[in-house]
Amino acid sequence: MMSLRTGRRARQAPDTSTPPRSHAYRQMRHPFEPQRVFSDDAIANMHQMALRALSELGMKILLPEARKLFGGAGALVDDSSQMVRIGPELVAAALATAPSSIRLRAPNPEREQWFEPGAMLFSAGAGCPNTIDAVRGRQAGCLQTFEETLKLVQSFDAIHILGPSAEPQDVPPHLRHYAMMQAQLSISDKPTFIYARGKKQISQSLEMIALGHGLSDDELRNGSWSYSIINTNSPRQIDVPMAEGIIEMARAGQMTIITPFCLAGAMAPITVAGALVLQHAEALAAITLSQLTAPGAPVTYGGFASNVDMKSGSPAFGTPSHMKLTIGSGQLARHIGLPWRSAAGSASNTSDAQGAGENHMGLWAALQANATLTVHSAGWLEGGLSFGYEKFINDMEAVQQLAEMAMPTPEDQASLGWDALADVDPGGHFFATQHTMDRYRDAFYAPVVADLSNHGAWVEAGSQTSTERAVDVWQGILRDFAPPPSAAGMADRLKAFVDEGTKAGGAPPTEG
Amino acid sequence: MMSLRTGRRARQAPDTSTPPRSHAYRQMRHPFEPQRVFSDDAIANMHQMALRALSELGMKILLPEARKLFGGAGALVDDSSQMVRIGPELVAAALATAPSSIRLRAPNPEREQWFEPGAMLFSAGAGCPNTIDAVRGRQAGCLQTFEETLKLVQSFDAIHILGPSAEPQDVPPHLRHYAMMQAQLSISDKPTFIYARGKKQISQSLEMIALGHGLSDDELRNGSWSYSIINTNSPRQIDVPMAEGIIEMARAGQMTIITPFCLAGAMAPITVAGALVLQHAEALAAITLSQLTAPGAPVTYGGFASNVDMKSGSPAFGTPSHMKLTIGSGQLARHIGLPWRSAAGSASNTSDAQGAGENHMGLWAALQANATLTVHSAGWLEGGLSFGYEKFINDMEAVQQLAEMAMPTPEDQASLGWDALADVDPGGHFFATQHTMDRYRDAFYAPVVADLSNHGAWVEAGSQTSTERAVDVWQGILRDFAPPPSAAGMADRLKAFVDEGTKAGGAPPTEG
User: Fold this and answer.
1) Of A28, A94, B369, B391, which has the fewest beta carbons less than 10 angstroms from its beta carbon?
2) pTM as predicted
3) Which of A322, A332, A337, A369 is nearest to A40 (CA)?
């Protein structure tokens, strides 16, 4: 017990060269074993019932080209009703060619991801027509707020891919994809998002990625440089732009994330099991279309299932049903062996305790479910009708804490800390032990917006809620924002293409 | 496919006899497999190092009677330094007699609990010297607020046992145990809490339980009708009242919950592993004292370990370190095979997004860790310096949602819902299918304070945060509160005892 005698005197100066804890949560792996809400038998039954639904009831597929692909492979197609009945052998063949691991490329190689089971990615609130912040209130999404939200997203490593955070409604629909791609490429070096709003928008967006990063056609197809979200029209329908999205992205070797939005009790059966059967059937149909288009095309399973609120009729998020649906989705994804996306998010109208709670429930359920990607992880208010700036900052605290928790926990002898134990007398403290001095700079997660000061200090500082404090945080991020090296000269590289495309009438989104 | 033809017409009227979803979350079991942050080898190493700490470094035990118990069993006792060195064989013998399952009795048999691995109990924020509510602000705890918080606790089935929610500081310390026990017995029918503030307070509290419920001495010892929390004075010290609590409760056959409060970087080593070694050593020492007093006495493992905030020096809660410490504690509890207590809670000064987030992290970590009991699950602000009324309501939403999630998920054929799937055309909805009509009343969790209305309706209703809405909720609960049947005539049954005890000078708390 040398340390008892000499410990306090022989102490060295702390190692000031250690940097404070980094928030570089880039390539993350799930820390937990996946959990179950259903027995394995029930999952197998749900898979079988989904296959039966596809083969006996069928899917309504609005795009003739997609029906032709199904028909050519042996599905029973009725063009008058647009119904396609898909046999289990077609689904099995698709699951056999769909890759279980997808290389998701990024302008910054440090942000590249393996999109595969076990990986843990997060993306921010997406698809929001409005924004809410404490300075400007609630307003329609515009290019400025789209760019601002991209800057916020770019500034947190724990958000791994971009998304349509706030819809730039001040840009006309036929030119919007130019603006959205230009903004992504000029502000961020993370994997990019492309809306499935017609073939031409997709192909032009891909051209912009190639131009922006100087990629040859082969390089653009070496892994996936972008992704698109494919929402089915539950129940049992795939509309024209979504089918075009599946086909065009598959042909270009780019990732689609299949996402039925199955609201139990509304567009899906009211039971957790029933809503999942429908989700599974729809996802399998879309995955099959992708693989019929191009075997081996990067496509992922997904779901965003929750329940309707029986009082208001609105979608609810972060509910017990949402959590069970998420964990069940993870079981179904593992059953077919594909990576998959989940979603968190909040129905709250503001960044309050309710909103925080709803998002935590979704995030934690996604951890239980080992979701490859959790969409709407930060900033999603009103069930997606608004992107909240203060909400984003508060949710990022949660996402970063989960990312930090996913980091390995040292368990070597030095970490067990015998010397520290022996160094401190009963009733004493560890503040000044060598064990503490060696580690204190890097030991703990440093909060973004949480305030741990005592009541007196907190009152003196204005009794601010974390939502009020978040205003300074996002304003500081926007004020200090510097684009990544990959964005240098981006506007010049894209200008001619965008100018010509604009002159030629842009690309109006596909209807129906 | 009869349903396709006849489904819409043949529909029956909904079954209005089904009651809406009940919130009777009484005897809960953990829904998830326990998770790990450490390898099994590391856990075994930590257990060994804790044993080594007890045997080589020892514990400072301030109560002579406790040292005598240790000494009598073969521990090395030095009365001048009050140090007790405890050999591994003593610990092993204690772990062999400590019960792994404890029957926790309640005046209402429906609230009885088996306190054992796999069970999932929650208790409210405890030990708070102050209360915070929107009407009265922050004030010192008093008998009125203690009684109010008991009424709130009694009103939620998902809070399974009572605790010292708000400290009644307006009652003199030597009489406070009378008031606290009278309040518990008169307001609630859940298992009761006894402070470890000296032998006389404990024995008198037990007498009041026996008087209040008409229990013979044998009946009082048939299972545990109460429990006490035993906090060690980390590092490596057990003070007089705590040692008296262990001994007195063990002799009376009542449950003690051993709870070292190991704040990593302050009263414990700064590493997760090191803090857990210290916690484990202290808990094993206290468990050993309990079993030396009365082999087979109900005693549970526990820990409440988090990290100090390096900026303010304050305890932090709901942090990544807190979560890892919780999950690691669960591993250690399983290693020794005992039920155990964890804790959630919040360091926030108010019921905001930060406070909600911190508590969610603690609650979810406790689920990952399969904690038998999670203390401070609702209402704990400022790291326990205040019990927040609005915080309690918002946290109860989370606790109830987790309880609801822990309920089994139907996976029978009817739940899979083939008929519903076949009943609804592509692009249609399930609102009016028989499958929905049969289930809608009971399908989903009904929120306590969450508001799922849309933005317009929310603004019209005053743009209230969930914390603002919670005021109405707790006021309504207090207004409508009715004591349980077991409380009828309670004051009469206790009066003589309390009057005599008061006249005789009460029972001043033990010092030191």
Assistant:
1) A28
2) 0.95
3) A332
